[in-house]
TrEMBL record:
It comes from Halovivax ruber (strain DSM 18193 / JCM 13892 / XH-70). This is Archaeal ADP-dependent phosphofructokinase/glucokinase. The keyword Secreted does not apply. PROSITE patterns: ADPK (PS51255). InterPro entries: ADP_PFK/GK, Ribokinase-like. The keyword NAD does not apply.
Length: 461
């Protein structure tokens, strides 16, 4: 029987040189721990923990309200800032640490560190941003000259002195801010929205089929970065353009497209993403908060609340997740929707890759998630040995078995793999080094393996 280490080695080998397109949002994350110093910097909101402030954030008081609400809810959240407030934070607040941020930046760093060969595009590429790529030698950037795409090293593609900065406020269970106690380990993101982030990539949009001809898959994200300032009227025109770019990418070849969903509290933007972008995906990645927003937009029943100390994990929640994912997949007409939660990973699909390819992806994602949580970063394939030291979650296995009973299937090694549903226990790190980007790590690693296996890069294992 193949050992876990042998399976991991096979997965890493399958990723060697895998060509992927990754776009659109990369930034620098300023990491700030929620503590007494932060409380002293902020201003006390009138009702801490009770409700979200208006979007966009424009003051220290509103920022405090947003962080406190997220702590009380026990799940990650994100709200945009006004340009003026973003500039004020950059001038007045010192981060505890800085790291690569943005879904595109995080996913590019991961796949390049694991040996893949990404072509990455983002709007603002400063020298400061380039310095945060772990393996810039493995990443190429698409420049267009005379209608022809030329791939260049990142250092040759620097196009600005400005850097997009997001602020990530991390907290652990029991941390307090203005009397509000965190019910789980998570984070709140105060996001900047530079005017360049309008989902128009200039000459690249018309030539994107040339990128499609060079890659096997695409990891796309950042659609939630749009603001009313980016559009003339409503969002539909801009997102129709973004839809046409996805179609152009596919015109160049047989390209699988993964869209990584992200939280936005702009109802009109969410509705437009739902209408114009999500149906174009082969696979959509989401967490439970994002799934609850999708379900609300689709008029489905509310997703169960995330477990906290007060509401412990219930294995039956996987049944509700399965039902909602199934309804969403059918409504959107996509091949697959993948959900990552603390205790398990779940994919609901139709006419997607073979179940074993998806199972391999979810199994590999669990190792990557544990590695990221334990180490804080993944910079080389050898780092994944850390993830193997964490056992698959017993609670997650129980949930997967509950789902298997529900669909009339059997599990093998605690995993479920049928033509329409695949589930795998996660590997849980009780005291994570950080929580930012784990969902992006899960989505990128699982999609990369699915794509590699579907292209038979390593044969059967």
């Amino acid at each position: 029987m193949t050992t876990e280490r042998e399976r991991l080695d096979a997965d890493i080998a399958a990723l060697d040189g895998l060509p992927l397109f990754v776009a659109y949002n990369a930034n620098v994350d300023g990491i700030v721990r929620v503590d007494d110093d932060l409380e002293a910097f902020l201003e006390r909101p009138s009702e801490p923990g009770d409700r979200l402030p208006p979007d966009p954030l424009d003051s220290r008081r509103n920022l405090a309200a947003a962080i406190a609400h997220t702590m009380a809810a026990g799940r990650g959240d994100e709200i945009a800032m006004t340009g003026a407030f973003a500039a004020a934070l950059e001038a007045e607040l010192s981060p505890d640490a800085q790291q690569m941020g943005g879904q595109t930046g995080i996913m590019t760093n991961l796949v390049s560190s694991l040996g893949a060969a990404p072509i990455a595009y983002t709007y603002l590429l400063s020298e400061r941003q380039v310095s945060l790529f772990d393996r810039p030698d493995r990443v190429q950037y698409p420049l267009v000259e005379g209608g022809t795409v030329r791939l260049v090293p990142l250092a040759e593609a620097v196009n600005t002195d400005r850097t997009k900065i997001n602020w990530v406020f991390e907290f652990r269970t029991g941390d307090e801010l203005f009397g509000v106690r965190a019910t789980d380990d998570s984070r709140f993101i105060a996001a900047s929205r530079p005017p360049e982030f309008d989902l128009s990539a200039g000459a690249l949009d018309a030539a994107v089929d040339q990128v499609g001809a060079r890659v096997d898959g695409a990891l796309l994200a950042g659609y939630h970065n749009l603001t009313p300032a980016h559009v003339d009227g409503d969002y539909a025109g801009r997102l129709r353009h973004a839809r046409d770019v996805i179609r152009g990418l596919r015109a160049g070849g047989d390209v699988d497209v993964h869209v990584e969903y992200a939280v936005t509290h702009d109802d009109d933007l969410r509705a437009s993403i739902y209408e114009w972008i999500l149906p174009e995906a082969d696979v959509i990645g989401a967490d439970t908060h994002e799934l609850s927003l999708l379900a609300d937009d689709a008029g489905l029943d509310v997703v169960p609340a995330r477990p906290t100390e007060e509401t412990p994990f219930n294995p039956d929640e996987i049944l509700a997740h399965y039902q909602i994912l199934s309804a969403l997949r059918a409504e959107l007409g996509v091949d697959c929707i993948r959900l990552h939660v603390m205790e398990y990973h779940l994919a609901v699909m139709e006419s997607y890759h073979p179940p074993d390819a998806v199972r391999r992806g979810l199994e590999f994602a669990a190792i990557n998630a544990a590695t990221k949580a334990a180490r804080g970063d993944i910079t080389a394939p050898a780092d994944l040995e850390t993830g193997l030291t964490y056992d698959p979650s017993a609670k997650g296995r129980e949930a997967v078995e509950r789902l298997a009973d529900h669909v009339g299937a059997s599990t093998e090694g605690g995993q479920l793999a049928t033509p329409t549903v695949v589930a795998c226990p996660n590997r849980v790190v009780e005291d994570p080094a950080g929580t930012v980007g784990i969902g992006d790590i899960v989505s990128a690693s699982s999609f990369a393996i699915e794509t590699a296996v579907a292209n038979d890069r390593d044969g059967d294992r």
